[in-house]
Design brief:
Layout lengths: L3 H26 L15 H6 L2 E5 L16 E5 H9 L1 E2 L5 E2 L1 H15 L8 H13 L9
Antiparallel strand pairs: 1-2, 3-4
Length: 143
């Protein structure tokens, strides 16, 4: 019979294996490219080469919610875009762009650029839309 510590370790290893598989799948789905169409890494090849790609949870990961580690909730971003997605940033106009508004804007732009069948983030976009409404935000913010 497995001890509590052994059971915990087994579950942790299984969770890490699922996340690793999902990360590899998402990187491949996104062609190993930052998915923020407006990210500076697309305009400056030197920036792109210096950046490593990271997989971001659109809806933040929570304990006991393995469904958040699925491709519908994961997106490939470079370090610059990932930092913006985690913390927000100050826009060119000097206004603060929150992390929620940033990701909402990125997903809306991607949705407009892609055919609907290729757009796997519909569920995440809908959750972000509801989060914005709960916080009193307007849908067009963050673009």
């Amino acid at each position: 019979m497995a001890t509590l510590a052994e059971d915990r370790n087994r579950k942790r290893r299984e969770r890490e294996a699922r996340r690793s598989t999902a990360r590899k799948e998402v990187l491949a789905l996104d062609n190993y490219t930052c998915q923020d169409p407006d990210c500076p890494c697309h305009k400056n090849p030197e920036l792109l080469e210096a950046q490593c790609l990271e997989v971001h949870h659109i809806i933040p990961r929570r304990p006991h919610a393995p469904e958040l580690d699925e491709p519908w909730n994961l997106i490939t971003l470079c370090r610059i875009a990932h930092s913006r997605a985690q913390s927000g940033y100050k826009g060119d106009d000097g206004k603060r762009v929150t992390a929620l508004d940033y990701m909402f804007g990125v997903l809306k732009k991607l949705g407009a650029m892609m055919k609907f069948r290729e757009f796997r983030w519909g569920g995440a976009l809908e959750v972000l839309r509801k989060m914005k409404m709960l916080r009193g935000g307007k849908e067009d913010e963050g673009e």
